[in-house]
Amino acid sequence: AQTVTQSQPEMSVQEAETVTLSCTYDTSESDYYLFWYKQPPSRQMILVIRQEAYKQQNATENRFSVNFQKAAKSFSLKISDSQLGDAAMYFCAYRSVLNYGGSQGNLIFGKGTKLSVKP
Amino acid sequence: DTGVSQDPRHKITKRGQNVTFRCDPISEHNRLYWYRQTLGQGPEFLTYFQNEAQLEKSRLLSDRFSAERPKGSFSTLEIQRTEQGDSAMYLCASSFGQGHYGYTFGSGTRLTVV
Q1: What are the distances in angstroms from CA B4 to CA A43, B14, B19, B43, B93?
Q2: A69-80 pLDDT, tens per residue?
Q3: Hey, is the C-beta of B25 within 8 angstroms of any chain A C-beta?
């Protein structure tokens, strides 16, 4: 079974600085999708960025970018020019593309990293 | 389209009571998912529907849990004979197709069993 590990329970960054959140995963599949979701306090989870495993190019969405290292099974999120509104829980998630064990519906999440942004 | 809606936002119930939650997905989305999130944890998959068919259930979904999606539109999640361990945030999400572009989540229903 696939697993997702986020080893940093909490992180802090100064406003306007850059921060990197770590994520590693375990899978025997070669084709899959990876996501970063943001969950602000008492608010709904929002998709931040998505990466397709068969694409070597790292995904970028404005101030958010990823460092996808397929061989190392690593998928880190970099937030540049951090803003106060970036403060939230960030979840890394894995999604199989195959009908592996019947888990076509299963988006597998890590435990999350709580990001604080200091003014 | 206002996104994925969940009702109620909060529910406090006594142990042993039954509760039912509702989820209205984005209308164009054919897949609907239920997740449970406890404090300090990431969301855990419970079950999902493709249109009205329930295609997968996690082993977390005990016999006390049942989910339906009549006519492939809204979905309900019922918990019978609630236990204190059922206290959690219940998240609903929907996607178009297989969700390879991500899921859209609702704000969740926070259940407290006292």
Answers
A1: 12, 27, 20, 16, 7
A2: 999 999 999 999
A3: no
